[in-house]
Write a structure and sequence with these properties.
The protein has 386 residues and is α/β, with parallel strands linked by helices. The protein is built from twelve helices and 17 strands.
């Protein structure tokens, strides 16, 4: 079984844990890879939503941050002055919040429609600020993004000519590539061809993209095979999860996030029940590795096979582990991002030293309780002023 810090022996479960040494090592690994290949790392903070974890990424070498919501932008503006909103902002309230970001923040927005572009331009003009624009291009996921290079060119030209906006390039998300890293070469090759065709069209129209923002955690380690790529937004790799280990993106010991839970029942033969249900782990199920919703740290054969709101059901038919009621266990989630978003806080630990950190970027609207960092350790808050 994996070691549980002594300081957590009396913890009220379920609660999220972050192994700081592992998180720092993960950040350093990504930063070293991207620097070696001349690519910027702009991690998406939707994975951790935490100022403290963002600082770890920036200190490791990240050159900016990607966010998904105005609230995440407001929070991360406290530690970073180069933000990409990788989501089209629609609606006056969202736009007003973005325009109210500190003037020192260089804001770029990704979008794929004229409606979003014109709304952003109007808001930027009213705020007397310049906002960068990346045209989002669909490269295979079929979720968002313009469908052709011609459409990309038309939208890029509108961004170039709009007062208040500055066309900076294109953005893509290869979320459709979810195979094992050893089997990605063909898909990466097809992606490179598609990107090159789009960039060539933009080049010919006098709209050569200065920024080509892409990458995902599953494809991170093949980023150097995309010649026009300038930055990657891989975010999950700060924590990793069982989805990432199943695809060969990370090893089990590189999972920095877990849920500490208590065994509450062993009454049903072949099963153990813990107090971490769907409100701690989430019912989202990628299941690339075929591991269910989560697995027991140190015993990957023990899987969470069913969830209700406050119950997690572990299958113990294939293990020699015999759980005791009251026993503490650590669960590695299938998809870490959605689990993090269910927490109010995380307990960060190095060895047996534990600190409670808020998740400031969680939610949609800022509140005093979330934005007040007075209860974070002095060593953490001091870096705000540096």
């Amino acid at each position: 079984m994996s070691v549980i810090p002594a300081g957590l022996a009396d913890a009220e479960t379920p609660v999220a844990l972050v192994d700081l040494a592992t998180a720092r090592a993960n950040a350093a690994r990504v930063a070293a890879y991207t620097e070696r290949h001349g690519i910027a790392w702009r991690p998406h903070v939707k994975t951790h939503k935490s100022l403290a974890l963002a600082r770890i990424q920036l200190e490791a070498g990240a050159r900016g941050l990607a966010v998904a919501t105005p609230h995440e932008a407001e929070v991360m503006a406290r530690v970073c002055d180069d933000l990409l909103l990788a989501y089209p902002p629609l609606g006056r309230r969202k736009l007003d919040r973005l325009m109210a970001l500190p003037e020192r923040v260089a804001l770029t927005v990704a979008l794929d429609s004229e409606v979003a572009l014109r709304g952003l331009a109007e808001a930027a003009r009213a705020a007397a600020r310049t906002v960068g624009v990346l045209v989002e291009v669909d490269v295979g996921l079929g979720r968002t993004g313009v469908q052709t290079a011609r459409e990309a060119g038309l939208l890029a030209a509108l961004a170039r000519d709009a007062e208040g906006l500055e066309y900076r390039g294109i953005m893509f998300y290869p979320g459709h590539i979810r195979t094992h890293v050893s089997e990605q070469e063909q898909a990466i090759g097809a992606l490179a061809e598609r990107l090159e065709s789009c960039c060539a069209t933009l080049d010919g129209a006098g709209l050569a993209p200065e920024v080509v923002s892409g990458g995902s955690s599953p494809t991170l380690w093949h980023s150097h095979l995309l010649p026009r790529l300038t930055e990657v937004r891989a975010g999950t790799v700060i924590y990793n999860d069982l989805d990432m280990t199943g695809m060969g993106v990370a090893r089990g010991r590189e999972c920095a996030y877990s849920i500490l839970a208590t065994v509450v029942s062993t009454a049903v033969p072949g099963r153990a029940v813990v107090d971490a249900g769907s409100k701690a782990l989430s019912k989202e199920l990628h299941d690339t590795a075929g591991i269910g919703y989560a697995a027991l740290a140190g015993r990957p054969e023990v899987r969470v096979v069913a969830l209700s709101e406050e119950h997690g059901v572990l299958d113990i038919t294939s293990t020699d582990w015999r759980p005791r009621v009251g026993e503490l266990v650590r669960l590695l989630p299938n998809h870490v991002c959605v689990s993090v978003n269910l927490q109010d806080r995380v307990i960060a630990h190095e060895g047996d030293r534990c600190e409670t950190w808020p998740i400031e970027g969680r939610g949609r609207v800022a509140s005093r309780s979330r934005m007040n960092l007075s209860h974070v350790t002095a060593s953490t808050t001091e870096s705000d002023t540096q």
